[in-house]
Write a structure and sequence with these properties.
By secondary structure, the chain is an all-alpha fold. The protein has 14 helices and no strands. Helix 4 packs across helix 9 and helix 5 packs antiparallel against helix 13. This is Drug/metabolite transporter (DMT)-like permease.
Length: 328
C-alpha cells in the first residue's frame, strides 16, 4: 500500500506540471507537432509495461482490435489533445489544468447515457458542484479569454468521450488502462502524423492559409526542434506522458482505481500553485473559489465510487477483469 501512495505522489507531480511544461515551450513548437511527439514518446515508454500486462492473456491483434485502437487513438490524441494543446496557447496553464480536470464530471452523464451506468444522487451532486466551480473560474460576467476557455472545455468534454470509448473497449476486450493507453497513444500519434503530412501538400497548405488557418499548414514533424527545447520535450514525453501514466496504472495495481484517482482530485489544487511559482500566474479569488468547489466535487465523486465498489463487491455477479478509469 505504501508503494501505491508513492506511485500516486509521482503521478500527481508529473500530471500537475504538464500544462506548465507545455506553456514553457509553446512558442517553440507547432501545437500539433508537440502533441505528436509527446504521445509517440509516451506510447514507447508505456509499451514494455503494456507487453507485460498482455503476457499470457492470449491477446491477438485482429482487424476489430485495430479498428478499436484507431478510434480511441483518434478521439484522444487527434481530437481531445489537440483542443487541449491549443487551449494552452490561448489560456493560462493553471486555467487549462483546472478546467481539463473537470473531464471526470462530464464522464458522469456520458457513462449514464452511453454505458447505462446508474446515476446516483452523489454523482449528480458531484457534477453540480464541479460545474459551479467551472462557472466561478470562467467568470461569465468578466470573460476576457473566451477562446482559451472554450478550447479547455472542449478538450475536457472530448477526453470524457475518450474515456467512454476506453470503458467500452475494456468491457469488450478486457484491456486494462496501461494497454489501452499505450496502444491508443501509439495509433493516435500515427493518425496525427498522417494529418500533419497532408498539411505539407501545396494545395492543402494553400487552402489552409487562404481560410485563415495558416498555423495548421505545413506542420513540421521533427524540424525546428532546438537544443534548448529538448529537455522539456523529454520531460513531456518520458516523464509526464510515459512515466506519469505508468505510475498511475501501477498505483491502481497497488491500491485501487478509486484510490489512484486521487491524482486527478489533487491536480486542480496543486497545478495552480505550481503555475503561480513557476509562471507567475496569479490565483484570483474566483479561481480559488472554483478550485475549492471542483476539489469538493471530486471528493463527493470519490465517495460515490467507494460506495459503488462496496455494493459491487457484495453483489454475486462476475465482473470483467479490468475496467478503464480515465480522468484527464
Amino acid at each position: 500500500m505504501k508503494k501505491g501512495y508513492i506511485y500516486i505522489a509521482f503521478s500527481t507531480l508529473f500530471f500537475s506540471t504538464m500544462e506548465i511544461a507545455i506553456k514553457l515551450v509553446a512558442n517553440e513548437f507547432n501545437p500539433l507537432q508537440l502533441n505528436f511527439l509527446r504521445f509517440l514518446i509516451g506510447s514507447m515508454v508505456l509499451a514494455p509495461l503494456a507487453m507485460r500486462h498482455l503476457k499470457g492473456t492470449g491477446f491477438t491483434f485482429n482487424k476489430k482490435v485495430l479498428s478499436y485502437f484507431l478510434l480511441s487513438g483518434f478521439s484522444c490524441v487527434v481530437v481531445s489533445m489537440t483542443f487541449f494543446q491549443m487551449a494552452i496557447v490561448y489560456a493560462k496553464a493553471s486555467t487549462v489544468a483546472i478546467l481539463f480536470s473537470c473531464n471526470a464530471a462530464f464522464l458522469i452523464p456520458f457513462a449514464h447515457f452511453f454505458l447505462k451506468e446508474k446515476l446516483t444522487k452523489l454523482s449528480i451532486l458531484s457534477l453540480i458542484i464541479s460545474l459551479v466551480g467551472m462557472v466561478c473560474i470562467v467568470n461569465p460576467a468578466n470573460l476576457t479569454n473566451p477562446v482559451g476557455v472554450s478550447l479547455s472545455i472542449l478538450g475536457a468534454v472530448t477526453f470524457a468521450l475518450y474515456g467512454i470509448i476506453g470503458r467500452k473497449g475494456s468491457l469488450r476486450y478486457g484491456f486494462d488502462g496501461v494497454v489501452q493507453s499505450s496502444f491508443s497513444f501509439f495509433f493516435g500519434s500515427l493518425e496525427l502524423l498522417v494529418l500533419m503530412l497532408l498539411t505539407k501538400i501545396s494545395v492543402v497548405a494553400g487552402w489552409l492559409q487562404a481560410v485563415g488557418m495558416g498555423q495548421f499548414s505545413n506542420i513540421p514533424v521533427f524540424q525546428g526542434i532546438s537544443w534548448s527545447a529538448l529537455p522539456i520535450l523529454f520531460y513531456l514525453g518520458v516523464m509526464v506522458t510515459g512515466l506519469g501514466f505508468s505510475f498511475y496504472f501501477l498505483a491502481m495495481e497497488e491500491t485501487s482505481a478509486s484510490t489512484a484517482s486521487l491524482v486527478f482530485f489533487i491536480k486542480p489544487a496543486f497545478a495552480p500553485i505550481l503555475a503561480l511559482f513557476i509562471l507567475g500566474e496569479a490565483i484570483t479569488p474566483n479561481v480559488l473559489a472554483g478550485i475549492l468547489l471542483i476539489v469538493a466535487g471530486s471528493c463527493v465523486q470519490l465517495r460515490a465510487d467507494s460506495r459503488e465498489s462496496k455494493r459491487t463487491a457484495k453483489a454475486p455477479v462476475i465482473q470483467t477483469d479490468a475496467q478503464l478509469h480515465v480522468r484527464g
